[in-house]
Write a structure and sequence with these properties.
Elements (H helix, E strand, L loop, with lengths): L2 H55 L1 H7 L1 E6 L6 E10 L4 H13 L4 E12 L1 H17 L2 E5 L3 H9 L7 E3 L6
Parallel strand pairs: 2-3, 3-4, 4-5
Antiparallel strand pairs: 1-2
Length: about 170
């Protein structure tokens, strides 16, 4: 084997080893991110359960956990709106999911979700909004989140999910 060919073979082997090492590191980093996401989900569920338990201990807290969901619309092909009020948690995000699903079932051109009355939203509420956004995109409905308040806006911003929604109303808190 000529020295030039041997040098080229050695260089290729070193590059392959480097790529294998980088691939292994990337895989390890991805596994770490997935583990952290699972831990975050578990902690979020534990915190939600703790909050629910604490709220159930006091009547005032239990009243705060409830939400009122009001809907108003004009029918298929028109612009619809839905107003959500209260604290959206794992306890009542199903109610919000039902209201959004019913509003989207009419296939409006635009669905405005008025969140001006929402003081708090947890990850289950966020998941409900993401699910509604997916349904809206598939059917060609423009889903608009309107008048986000402090904590719900902050949650969307730190998760960077604010980039997935059309948001109208107050300016970002950045």
């Amino acid at each position: 084997m000529s020295p030039a060919l041997f040098a080229e073979f050695s260089r290729i082997r070193e590059e392959r080893q480097l790529l294998d090492h980088l691939h292994s590191n990337l895989f390890n980093h991805l596994m770490l991110v997935l583990a952290l996401l699972q831990i975050g989900w578990i902690l979020g569920r534990a915190c939600a359960c703790l909050c629910v338990d604490l709220a159930k201990e006091s009547d005032e807290g239990a009243r705060e956990m409830s939400s009122e969901i009001d809907t108003a619309g004009e029918g298929a092909g028109k612009d619809d709106s839905i107003a959500i009020h209260g604290r959206i948690t794992v306890e009542n995000s199903g109610e919000m999911n039902s209201a959004l699903a019913n509003a989207l079932r009419e296939k409006p051109a635009k669905l405005s979700v008025d969140l001006s009355g929402v003081s708090y939203i947890d990850t289950s509420g966020l998941a409900t909004l993401l699910q509604a956004a997916g349904v809206a995109r598939k059917q060609g409905t423009r889903l608009v989140l309107d008048a986000l308040q402090d904590q719900p806006r902050y949650l969307l911003e730190i998760t960077r999910f604010d980039r997935l929604f059309d948001i109208e109303g107050q300016e970002p808190s950045r």
